[in-house]
Design goal:
By secondary structure, the protein is α/β, with parallel strands linked by helices. About 40% of the residues lie in helices and about 20% in strands. It has a single domain, classed as Rossmann fold, CATH 3.40.50. The strands form two sheets. Strands 2-1-3-6-7 form a five-stranded parallel β-sheet, with helices on both faces. The longest helix has 20 residues. The structure holds flavin mononucleotide. Flavin mononucleotide binds next to helix 1.
């Protein structure tokens, strides 16, 4: 049975836009027989990485800190698929970045040169074979999610595992308003989850459908700017 671990980095956790995309994705994987678990970075007490490389060069695989990463490490080692879920915060919410920095102990301190880049890889006791990104943004373009996409791909490369694709949802908050289009998006999200478990990969057209525009660019920009004008007037 495939084990899926999702780490949701949203500061708004269960109520956030990121959860709005992540939840149907996980539900569809569960429906296909996977076991799924979500952890919220914000709920965990995780201290910042000290950067002293003790986990690499002193006590290999052991972090100097004793905190909630001790709960997360075993879950990460057991998972087959790791889903990194986050909003774009130029680039990431602090708690999530903090958690990602603390992944050093699950990486082997042996550097390899792969495809023209210096890379590490996960320790052999880490089961993860695929990493998937779920990311949401507030602005119109999918391109606003490029930095986060790049980070997720780098994490997969540095773990020596497959980056299995990204569910990217720009202007995600509008899913609450444009219900008909949102239904098509949710259907595509569910399809992506089903494909990931059944075929081990998600089709490009399905992922593109998840990112489909819900509104014209100029209309979204006008809304933001109107809200700002209103707020300015109210506070003057
Ligand atoms: C500090 C901060 C920075 C943000 N930067 C961007 C950005 O660069 N591009 C973008 O599309 N959205 C940006 N957003 C909007 C969020 O990514 C978006 O509202 C997201 O869907 C929130 O997800 P959540 O409800 O799960 O937290 C930013 C939001 C915050 C609070």
């Amino acid at each position: 049975m495939t084990k899926v671990l999702a780490i949701n980095g949203s500061a708004r956790m269960e109520k956030g836009n990121t959860a709005m995309v992540l939840t149907p994705f996980l539900q569809s994987m569960e429906k296909e027989g996977a076991t799924v678990e979500v952890v919220y970075a914000k709920k965990l007490k995780i201290r910042p990485c000290m950067g002293d490389f003790q986990c690499w060069f002193d006590k290999v695989g052991e972090c100097i800190h004793t905190d909630d990463m001790q709960i997360l490490f075993p879950k990460m080692k057991e998972a087959d698929i790791l889903v990194l879920a986050t909003p774009v915060y130029l680039p990431l919410p602090g708690e999530f970045q903090n958690l990602l920095n603390r992944l050093m102990p699950i990486c082997e301190p042996i550097l390899e040169f792969r495809n023209g880049r210096t890379r590490a890889k996960f320790h052999d006791d880490v089961n993860i074979s695929k990493i998937v990104l779920v990311a949401t943004g507030g602005w119109w373009e999918k391109g606003n999610l490029d930095t986060v996409l790049h980070i997720a791909k780098e994490i997969a490369e540095n773990g020596g595992v497959e980056f299995a694709g990204a569910l990217l949802r720009p202007h995600a908050f509008l899913m609450n308003e444009f219900e008909e289009k949102a239904l098509a998006v949710v259907d595509a999200i569910k399809m992506a989850g089903k494909q990931l478990i059944k075929q081990g990969k998600m089709n490009t057209d399905v992922l593109e459908s998840i990112s489909q525009p819900l509104i014209a660019e100029a209309d979204l920009r006008e809304r933001y700017n109107r809200n700002y004008e209103r707020a300015k007037k109210a506070s003057s």
